[in-house]
Amino acid sequence: FSTQVLLNMLIDNAFLIITAIGMTFVLIIGGIDISVGSVIALVCMLSAYLLEIQHLSAMIVIPLMLLMGFLFGLVQGSFIHFFTIQPFIVTLAGMFLARGLCYVISIDTIMITNPFYQFIATYRIPLPFDNFISISVIIALVLVLAALYLSNYTKFGRAVYAIGGNAQSAMLMGLPVGRTKVLVYGLSGFCSALSGVVFSFYMLSGYGLHAMGLEMDAIASAVIGGTPLTGGVGFVTGTVSGVLIQGVIQTLIMFQGTLSSWWTKIAVAFLLCLFIVLQRIVVSRKERTKSIS
Q: I need a surface site. Which of 17, 122, 180, 203 has the fewest CB within 10 A?
């Protein structure tokens, strides 16, 4: 591969990195959020509608979308915590709601011709040796750094890991379990909305079928990166590695030329099963060591 091919892979997967970071925090607390793909589609569709039909400024639309995503996540987190409903059920309802709202806005594709969006979509930041990256990559990298700081150097991050390890113990320690859970889902909604904004830069359109199945790619990236579905453990850098592993597989298959793109899904499925088995083996050994000691 040339350096630019690898950078193009990063450009193409910037929105997935953003989504997977939000998913990582949810998985660490032992939850799940399968509404992220639909929220991305809703952000793209609503952005296109407000920009092209209502002729609002991009400086209004982008903050509005981020706020909407954050509130969407907060509402889901509130239902999960206060009504003690399984996260899968609540976020499944959120997935149907967000996807349905896309088709309420329009059943057709709405193209985005806003000058600001087109500038962001086409602008390339030059790098040495005739390489370049997009603004979307910068947004993703800034979010990665912010997530690293949040998870490793704040009370919120420590509370997230404690809740994932044992929510009852975290509560006895005086940690704000309920508030933290709700905020984690708010963070996931914010990341999904930010990913939707980046995806709208990438696609320059809104359509109800955008980001179909992206929630599974985000979960797979987090798991491949070392975040188990049982909670309590997780790594932001590992999640980014999981996204890049999927990108490398996709690039290899594309360069091979004779294989269908669906082989990417097959390879990811194999890796996912492999990492889950390895995680189970590591956990079993730790439990065996504790019982012996």
A: 122
Q: pTM of the full predicted structure?
A: 0.93
Q: What is the distance between the alpha carbons of residues 92 and 29, in angstroms, rounded to a whole number?
A: 18
Q: Which tokens is 243 given? A: 């996204």
Q: In b/e form, how buried is each residue of 20-34, taking b as 16+ CB within 10 angstroms? A: bbbbbbbbbbbbbbb
pLDDT averages per 10-residue partition of the chain, 293 residues:
80 94 96 96 97 95 97 97 95 97 95 96 90 94 96 95 92 93 97 97 94 92 89 91 88 74 81 83 77 68
Residue 149's nearest CA partner among 140, 138, 158 is: 158
The Cβ of residue 50 has, within 10 Å, a number of other Cβ atoms equal to 21
* CA distance linking residue 2 with residue 10, whole number of Å: 13
CA distances from 273 to 212, 215, 268, 277 (A): 22, 17, 9, 6
CA proximity to 190, closest of 11, 61, 12, 65: 65
Residue 4: its H or E element: helix 3-12
